[in-house]
Amino acid sequence: MNDEDLGAGAPRGVIIHYHLFKNAGTSVDAILRRNFGERWASQEYPPRLGIEAAREFLIANPHIAALSSHTLLLPPPKIPDAEILPILFIRHPLDRLKSAYLFEREQRADTVGVRLARENDFAGYLRARLEIPGDRSCRNFQTHRLAMAEPENGDTELARALRAFDRLPFVGSVEAFDPSLIALERLVQPWFPDFRVFQTRENVSRPPSSVDERLTELKSELGEEVFELIASANADDLALYQRALDRYSQQGGHDQRLPAPGTTPQRDTATPAKTEGGVPNRVLSDADAKAVGDEDRIAAMKLRPGRGPSLARVFRERNLTFSSGLSLACGSGTAERELLGLGICQRFHGVDSSPDAIEEAQENGRGLDLTYEPADLDRLVLEPRAYDLVITRNGLRNVLELEHLAEQIWRSLKPGGCLWIHDYIGESQFQFSDLRLDIANRILAILPERYRRDRLRDRVLSKIARPSPGALASPFEAVRSAEIIPIFTRWFDIEYRHEESAFMGRVCPRGTRANYTETEDGPALFELMMLIENLLVEHGILGPHTGQYLMRPKLDPVASQDRAAPRMDAEQAYRVAETTR
Q: What are phi and psi of 424, to 5 degrees?
């Protein structure tokens, strides 16, 4: 390749590839090497001297057109009569960490990362690295590196990284690799007209699959506690990942592929849908809808609207272990696999009303001491004293025969056994109290519109109202949720509780959370509303909507009351439950 046609006296173009570890950098290097041959170089530098050393190297070697480095830090060096083209790629941080772990586990080197990878499973590796003071490899690593391109000026690291993202000429997305390479080609060709990108997969630690599939596997492998820990530690990287993905999604990036020789990339077109009034409405492609959902989940990881401890953490803090567990409304079996993997419980039996969920749980649990059966919780009959642990997460809210189920669980537990409940415990069928609606709507009324935009449903929140019970997805949805704790405390004593959420689930529902991470004051505003909500619950002004409880069977349970008695609303139920504190 040559750049003679740039003209005499034209600035020299130099590509600097900032090769972030496990961010497809080896594949990018292969493209640079093939394009430039001996005019490509790979150099590593000591952190404090790297920029100046790279500057001296490039001045001393004017034939170099592309330089790659793992250790060279931003900002790019300034070289007389040269235009520096810095390039780097961003990747989903959790997916990057798994690839880094697999690579270090097989690497022949004596580094801290390699030793930890060989000595620990993935969860242990992450915990160990997070405990090392100053180690950024598992804590917003990409944000940290990108932020170096901008002066501090009192800004947060994420704010500087996002500013650098917008200012740098090229930041690619590993998850949108092909469209990123097409953009890279367009950037480089004015300097090097013969530059061509091509498909390549170099130094790949894992077989190709969708990022969603890999993240699902990661959550199952790590367990809820470690997954949330590492997601929280990388919340800024998650925001950066979403920004990079959005860049190429907005360009139609997910539909772009590297062209075959002599062809031009094609883009799909879509016909706008029309509303009832015949006005074209915004159409979200499947990729765009998924991107909006991912954006919301990433924002939730940063904001943490749900702040209760994980089930595993509660058991670990109390040094509780069990031999035989029962999981009610088990779904796909995530909780059982996590507790088995952590050694908290030796075996589990799972029950769910959905045959599809049971089939998935059985498939996921192959080779583990797990059994499953489909059953209706309203009619469930359990073997007496068969378990020393029963768990149920988000399963009781849709049970009509709560008294029957509470008695069956009580009879199934061995003496000293434990019951864990994590569920929605607010007003049955979401018939919110006047007081809750008044407080929530007053807060909503003063929020700027940018925070009330629901991106999932393409609407602006204006007022929160009680849903019509007939409009719910099921007639049994939250059918007796307000009575869960009053009924179960007839049979069980509460040993531990965590209660939260009084209005935030309605004021800041799914689809609105990214609004708060895109402004400088958004996180502080969200935190202020969380504080107000917690104070309302703490002082008994509003009952909580979500509860986590560790319970023990009563020696002498209270006899079931007459089912014909009037049922309680959420505030009455909360006051009754308060007497058990």
A: -75, 125
Taking a C-beta distance cutoff of 8 angstroms, is the pair 303, 327 a contact? no
Instruction: Look up residue 472 and give its two tokens.
Output: 């719910």
Query: Which of 4-10's residues contact partners 24+ apart within 8 Å by CB, and which partners?
Result: 5/193, 6/191
The residue type found at 96 is R
- Amino acid letter, residue 152: E
DSSP state of 76: P
Q: Which of 51, 96, 134, 118 is nearest to 234 (CA)?
A: 96
pLDDT in tens, the chain (581 residues): 554 444 445 678 999 999 998 888 888 999 999 999 999 999 998 877 889 999 999 999 999 999 999 999 999 999 988 999 999 999 999 999 999 999 998 888 888 889 999 999 898 899 899 989 889 999 999 999 999 999 988 888 999 999 999 999 999 999 888 899 999 999 999 999 999 997 655 544 444 456 677 777 888 788 878 888 898 889 899 989 988 988 887 654 443 444 433 333 333 333 333 333 333 334 445 556 667 777 787 788 788 888 888 888 899 899 999 999 999 999 989 899 989 988 999 999 999 999 999 999 999 888 999 999 999 999 999 999 999 999 999 999 999 999 999 999 999 999 999 999 999 999 999 999 999 999 999 999 999 999 999 988 888 999 999 998 878 888 889 999 999 999 999 999 999 999 999 999 999 999 999 899 888 899 999 999 999 999 999 999 999 999 999 999 999 887 544 444 445 455 554 444 444 44
**pTM of the shown model:** 0.64
Please tell me what DSSP assigns to residue 133: T
- The stretches of 107-156 forming alpha helices (DSSP H) are 112-119, 122-130, 141-147
525 residue type, one letter: L
Two structure tokens written together for 79: 């070289």
The total number of residues shown for the chain amounts to 581
| Three-state secondary-structure class, residue 40 | strand
Contact 434, 515 (CB under 8 A): no
**Residue 93 near residue 237 (C-beta atoms within 8 A):** yes
Q: Which two tokens stand for residue 77?
A: 């060096």
Radius of gyration of the chain (CA): 28
Name every residue whose Cβ is closer than 8 Å to that of residue 207 and which is 6 or more positions away in sequence: none
As a dihedral over the C-alpha atoms of residue 474, residue 480, residue 485, residue 486, rounded to 10 degrees, the angle is: -170
Tokens at residue 303, please?
């904001």
Q: Say if residues 431 and 469 touch (Cβ distance below 8 Å).
A: yes
What per-residue string of b and e applies to 169-199 under the rule 16 or more CB within 10 Å gives b? ebbbbbbbbbbbbbbbbeebeebbeebebee
CB atoms within 10 A of CB 495: 13
Contact status, residue 312 vs residue 338, Cβ threshold 8 Å: yes
Integer CA distances (angstroms), 165 to 146, 183, 483, in order = 7, 15, 51
